[in-house]
Amino acid sequence: MNQPHYKLPVLIYDEECSLCLRFMQALEKLPGTETITKIPLQDENLYNHFSELSMDACYEEIHYIDEKGQILKGPQVPEILINKFPNVKKFSWLIESQMGQKAIDYFHHIASNYRKKLKKDCPGCNKKHHRKRTPDIGA
Fold it and tell me: What pLDDT is recorded for position 124?
């Protein structure tokens, strides 16, 4: 069985989260971001290809794997996106100041809490079908 090849950089998102989908749609409209491979965390092959990732960790917060294979997560992701892409770069002043960094951290915190609330209130999400991976026997 052939495993898909994931070209770096990779952005891992939750395709069952409406907030995440809106973020991905907005990101796709920015020139330059087409170089990012966007992969839903529900893609089982992702964890075979990147063994250091777990579905539970990816479910908890956004992950980005840069061109060198370094894994960034949580509030590090908006920071790298702001620095990396030309149309997002106009917001780089946000991370260059202490106040701006606090704003990014706050935004990530609020978005993360909102996403968790959406998941909690979603009857389909509560079935935890996103976590049906079983640990390897003998691991």
Answer: 56
Reading across the β-sheet that carries 10-13, which strands appear in turn?
A: 37-40, 10-13, 63-65, 71-73
- Helix%, strand%, coil% for the chain, nearest 5: 55, 10, 35
pLDDT of 76 above 50: yes
Residue 132, pLDDT above cutoff 50 = no
Structure tokens at 60: 């908890």
Q: Quick check: pTM over 0.85?
A: no
Residue 62 contacts residue 73 (beta carbons within 8 Å): yes
Measured between its terminal Cα atoms, the distance across the chain in Å is 22
Compute the CA torsion angle 82, 23, 102, 95 (nearest 10 deg): 0
